[in-house]
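Researcher: Next sequence.
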Amino acid sequence: MLNILRHKGVAKKVLWFTTSIIVLSFGFFGVASHIDRSINIAGKMYGHGVSVRDFNRSYLDSRDAAILLYGDQFFKYGNRLDLESQTWDRLLLLHEAKKQGIKTSDQEVVDFIATIPFFQTNGKFDQHKYESIVQNPQIFDRKVHDFEEGIRSYLSIQKLLEQVAGNPSLTPEELKKEYMLKNEKIKLTYALFEPLKAARNLTVTGVEIKQYYDNNKELFRKPVMVNIEYASLNFPAKATDQQKQAVKKEVTGLAKELKAGGDFQATAQTHKMQVKESGLFSQAQPLLTFAWSPELVEKIFTMKQGQYSPAMETPDGWQIFRIKEHKDSYVPELVEIKDEVKNALLTDKGFTLAKAKADSALKAINEGLKANKTFKELALAQGAKVEETPTFSRGEYIANMGLIAEFQEETLKLNMQNRLSSVLTTSQGPVIIYLDSVEPIDEKQFEADKENFKEMMLAQRRNQAIVDFVTKLKLEANIQSVTNQKKIK
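Model: Next structure:
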């Protein structure tokens, strides 16, 4: 154990940069806290094996970090955290910290632990409380030395990430531009030149359709699909904690019986639960009837046919499911999707025609505006589909307005002296934007908000630098986990 922990007069402010990494890695589905020791390695990183011993030690360190971060909530929801991915992140970052010669002294570990509220009594570090909590089987269940070495590795990783985050800066011009992006209100009218409308008089031959299919087969690839059997048990209305525990016990009991080889339909009936079927769906279009997070959906598509999920809590109760069918991605034969290919070919040709029409229309609209005609009447005269937006912030997402996200970079160039855009290529076709009105920012409010807003923007830049750095390391490390037989992303 480190020599003596003591309360410092003023605890150092600690930047929890690892939160960024936890956000990257934590998802749903817990994993076993230990790997089968009959496996020699837990996986590979940079082409070298990582021993089971090192992985398990880092796993426990990752779990300790999660307990420190989430407190009591960890013991309630910790089974939903993907600690395996978090462990690989930790090993990867610690490898990089050592590579860069980053070290953490005993005193730094002492100072950090002394700031943790878990280990304080009346605001001061309590040695007895510290050792009791760390060794308590219901909390950390660690040897004090091992816990402290986990803190040392955490602090080394923190130093690495602080170094990566750096000290970004914002010029006054950049700051005001970002503030305007989030706070200036604008209203747009836009003209869409629809590809299919442009192509409505076109015809295509069977030869053209086949040639287009042969040259663009990947465009028509069907995604991986899964069909799920599931059984749910909802909480009673206004359920008490005792009733919720009863529901949990029932579903976890079902999970244990299924793990032992029970038949889903028959076993569910003994628990007064009905097995239902989802039908095939893809990862890009999960079933909205299920309260599934993106992390859980991603996990579902890594599961094998016949595999069961653990018992999972939902907003309404508890659930368990089984992958009934896992259909691999494939490219259909032309005969199956001939109409789809024909429409894609017409759309492709239509985009070319619509772009030419939009280029011509832009010139006509420019001239018409000089003659004090309205953008709307000019665009309609050119055969465009004209839409108006509500008033919105330049950087704001507006549901059901489709193209606005594609406009946002262009809207930064528009002002009341330059109201007309060039022809933009969007997912729906060529578009011309017209700036109807601007509600400028309140300059006094900007001055009042400026410093806080600047800190927020700098924090975002630091976090983005960390995310980019970790993503790059993962690509280079090419982590292969034996525990799940797949590459860690």
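Model: The first strand starts at residue 41 and ends at 45. Residues 134 and 140 are 5 Å apart (CA to CA).
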